[in-house]
Write a structure and sequence with these properties.
- The complex is a heterodimer.
- Chain A contains 3 helices and 23 strands.
- Chain A is mainly beta.
- Chain A has a domain of about 180 residues: Methylamine Dehydrogenase, Chain H, CATH 2.130.10.
- The two termini of chain A are about 30 Å apart.
- Chain B has 7 helices and no strands.
- Chain B has a domain of about 70 residues.
- The chains are: A mainly beta, B mainly alpha.
- Chain A: GO terms for molecular function: peroxisome matrix targeting signal-2 binding.
- Chain A: It holds the Pfam family WD40.
- Chain A: It comes from Ganoderma sinense ZZ0214-1.
- Chain A: Its main location: cytoplasm.
Chain lengths: ~350, ~160
């Protein structure tokens, strides 16, 4: 099979940490980059245009770039203004850029106390975006306000990504060093009661609508399926890409959250995609098809796969890292996530599951 | 390999090697980064580093072009056309008198940067300048493009 080589774009000295296609122009994308492995030094936001190269193949070129003090880890285009986009920086800052204005940002916010690792613009409330940080918080913003609208104490450790649901308003999913994926209802910000003896965390955690014990290791990335509203993919240092059915989530204002000391734990692991040889840095569902899932890894490969071919069934589903945890809550979660999903579950997700086991 | 980066009209592999822009070849640079990150150049003299770089270039060039260039021939032609900007390999530390523009293009290895940080010599790290923390005073542009439906939204309403 002879395939034409991919078009490449070099930005010497600045390695890429995130990229985003413009929601308005098919031939435009943005690259968030950092110098010196993100350890020290500047960042750059590149605006990239796709022209036509030799043989009619798309040829990317840098239209312009913006320099930042610290490395940039993520970028998100505005869903409402074709010239504007927001960046996440290692110094905790968030900046809004207008690509018709050179050199400088048009807004800046400094609330996060550690690296901001992700930004995501809402496609439903198109004037809002969220950021997630290594300080454990997720913040909701609108460009017109000088301060954040809401802060969630989402996890006790680094939050690598926070993403709006593409279907459900005011709903975000997060993933973290703590091995969990969480779903939050932004309309119902409540705090979890402090567990007895939980003196290690000074700040009380925000109450998630659902916690998915996704891995025994750090969860670096997640994505919402674009066609099945409560289906998520997650991946991270355990090298596996996992697909979660989270339809058991209960949204809504939560007197519940205050009264019920046991937060909702669940998520049914529908598929596990093995194959990556190192940690997986990014997963993304296709915007065009419900079954196509791409993942990029520190093993230098990007894999685009049909997630249906990796669906678990029967007992083979039982080996997830969650099982290594031994406390009662996790045991409960693991049972729900894995052990109890033999016959019944296949029927619950009509049209998605194909009973094919991959070890 | 685009036409621009193999400018020789003759089939002479030496000529093509001499003018080949390794700095623009992503695959070569990726392989080189792997070699550099293993610390291959650490503690080597400038001459030794140059020799190692040349060997990596010859190896790569022979592999992708099917040529069988010999190291001595490559060295001879390279020395003859030394300092041609086309094939100056970016990752080797250039002499300190080079203008700052070139300094910014150096890519240090992870180990080199770690060492400089530990020694407090962050001034020697490229791409580490002070960027003014100010906002633009210009008026932001006005949006003129209408919002598009996402592929999944288009399908839902169809």
């Amino acid at each position: 099979m002879n395939r034409s080589p991919p078009s490449t774009l070099q930005t010497p000295g600045f390695a890429h940490y995130g990229l985003a296609w413009s929601p308005f122009h098919n031939n435009r994308l943005a690259l968030a980059s950092s110098a010196n492995y993100g350890l020290v030094g500047n960042g750059r936001l590149h605006i990239v245009g796709l022209g036509l190269g030799p043989g009619g193949l798309p040829q990317p070129g840098i239209d312009k770039f913006y320099e930042t003090q610290d490395g940039l880890y993520d970028v998100a285009w505005s869903e409402i203004h074709e010239n504007q986009l927001v960046t996440a920086s290692g110094d905790g800052s968030i900046k809004l850029w207008d690509i018709m204005i050179n050199n400088l940002p048009i807004r800046a916010w400094q609330e996060h106390t550690r690296e901001v690792f992700s930004v995501d613009w809402s496609n439903i409330a198109k004037d809002q975006f969220v950021s997630s940080s290594w300080d454990g918080t997720v913040k909701l913003w609108t460009p017109e306000r000088p301060r954040s609208l809401t802060t969630l104490q989402a996890h006790p450790s680094c939050v690598y990504q926070a993403l709006f649901s593409p279907h459900q308003p005011d709903t975000i999913a997060t993933c973290s060093t703590d091995g969990t994926v969480r779903i939050f209802d932004l309309r119902a910000p409540a705090y979890l009661p402090s567990a007895p003896g939980a003196s290690t965390f000074n700040a009380p955690l925000s109450a998630p609508a659902l916690t998915v014990p996704a891995s025994g290791g750090e969860v670096l990335t997640l994505d919402w399926n674009k066609y099945r509203p409560w289906l998520l993919a997650s991946a991270g240092v355990d090298k596996m890409v996992k697909v979660w059915d989270c339809r058991m989530v209960k949204l809504g204002p939560g007197p519940d959250a205050a009264q019920n000391p046991n937060p909702a734990v669940g998520g049914v692991c529908e598929a596990q995609l093995a194959g990556h040889e190192y940690a997986v840095r990014k997963v993304q569902w296709s915007p065009h098809r419900p079954d196509v899932l791409a993942s990029a890894s520190y093993d230098m490969t990007c894999r685009v796969r049909n997630a249906m071919l990796f669906v678990l069934h029967g007992r083979s589903a039982s080996a997830t890292p969650g099982e290594r945890n031994s406390n009662a809550q996790d045991e409960h979660a693991t049972k729900r996530a894995c052990g109890l999903r033999s016959a019944g579950c296949v029927a619950r997700v009509e049209g998605f599951l194909i009973p094919t086991a991959y070890s | 390999m685009d036409a621009q980066n193999s400018p020789s009209t003759s089939g002479d592999p030496l000529g093509r090697f001499a003018s080949y822009r390794f700095a623009d070849d992503a695959e070569y640079q990726q392989g080189l980064a792997g070699i550099l990150s293993s610390g291959a150049l650490q503690g080597k003299s400038e001459d030794e580093q140059e020799e190692l770089m040349l060997r990596s270039e010859v190896f790569y060039f022979n592999r992708v072009s099917g040529a069988s260039l010999d190291l001595d021939a490559a060295r001879a032609i390279r020395n003859g056309r030394k300092l041609g900007i086309d094939f100056a390999p970016a990752p080797v530390a250039p002499p300190p008198q080079l203008p700052p523009k070139d300094k910014e293009q150096i890519t240090l290895t992870f180990a080199q940067i770690k060492e400089l940080i530990e020694q407090g010599k962050t001034d020697n790290i490229p791409n580490n300048k002070v960027i003014p923390n100010v906002l633009s005073s210009e008026t932001p542009s006005e949006s003129r493009t209408s919002v598009r439906k996402k592929p999944w939204e288009a399908e839902a309403t169809a």
